[in-house]
């Protein structure tokens, strides 16, 4: 079984918790794109883990792999490995592996990212982690790969060739190229490379062999669908492909191997950084979502922009990812709201549309058309059976299913692992949720 799980919105849908929850059912959890600009928070009892590169399945003993589609910050990775070991989590070459072809985020990538954002008139809202510049060097064939850190002579040959151009670029951006890459930092990078060599694996080979042996693999994405570099709200996107199809290229697994795709949907919508967010709320409801949902970025600490759930965007996400089921997260955050709104369409230049326009500039001019749903006051964090949810909560979930024609398989009602409802597959639901009856939007 090969399952792909991705965020259906702009990221921050709660993938860390859900991957951690599902990982117990899988033999391998593999990360297929992005870098340490991602942030997954997992709460287990009194312990809170914040992971940026290592798949959260490592917390339950599932083998965790980082594929060649990822760009890797070795310093961040080493900090994460040490944090896990210090907290009693076993990390060995048998439980963790990194593909040697993963590109390295170099210090000059981070410097150029920060300087480039400062110089832009129209800010993107980058995390300044060097992600875009690392991916650009991959495309330009100027990358340093993890495997290069295992061979000191090869590493110095590449650095000697690349560094003059990087220093020139940084000087043009207004930075100081002479403080760019001190000898001590090079030595530290090579030292980390030697430490990571024991974890080096051919991820494609490992996963394909595991699938042939009947094992279960869960492919984990970072960010969310509408931050995809091709299909997202350009230019306010990340620098990799975040949709389910990129799991195949990012891990080296053929598309015929994919068994199912799971979409994570927050019960409202959030976004970090700039870019269109049609349902954004700048009122007391928006502040409620920020406060109750603790909507601050795991990686950046920035306050997230919040709004009502956006169904036109979710329809497009289903088309882009081919979801077979949805997981609804943070339903508990809506508790206490008298009325819960759902964007069911947009108005654009006087015309009603129920699917997002293609161009970002048009998306920025969309005005949401809302439907109302009754809210609920009673806390739901303790509920574990779907039938015990308040009527308003069940109506909200079932309306999502009706519009999307895809079943909701899990509902998260709190940050902890056990605050999750597995929805009974046999409960009555709209027949359009049956994949046999599905039609493209």
Give an overview of the whole structure.
The strands form four sheets. This protein has a ten-stranded mixed beta sheet, sandwiched between helices. Strands 12, 13, 15, 16 and 17 form a five-stranded mixed beta sheet that branches. The chain is globular. The protein has two domains: 2-65 and 208-437, Alpha-Beta Complex (Adenylosuccinate Synthetase, Chain A, domain 3); 103-197, Orthogonal Bundle (Adenylosuccinate Synthetase, subunit A, domain 2), CATH 1.10.300.10. The protein is built from twelve helices and 19 strands. With 441 residues, it is of the alpha/beta class. It catalyses: IMP + L-aspartate + GTP = N(6)-(1,2-dicarboxyethyl)-AMP + GDP + phosphate + 2 H(+). Plays an important role in the de novo pathway of purine nucleotide biosynthesis. Catalyzes the first committed step in the biosynthesis of AMP from IMP.
Estimated structural class: alpha/beta
Overall CATH class of the largest domain:
Alpha Beta
- Cα gyration radius (Å): 22 Å
Strand order of the largest sheet: 9-7-5-2-10-1-11-14-18-19
What's the main sheet like?
Answer: 10 strands, mixed
Name the poorly predicted regions.
Answer: none
CATH topology grouping of the largest domain? Adenylosuccinate Synthetase, Chain A, domain 3
Shape: globular
User: How many β-strand runs?
Assistant: 19
Fourth-level CATH superfamily of the largest domain: Adenylosuccinate Synthetase, subunit A, domain 3
Number of helices: 12
Proportion of β residues? 15-25%
Number of domains: 2
Share in helix: 25-40%
Under the CATH scheme, which architecture of the largest domain would be assigned?
Alpha-Beta Complex
Please report the distance between the alpha carbons of the first and last residues: 27 Å
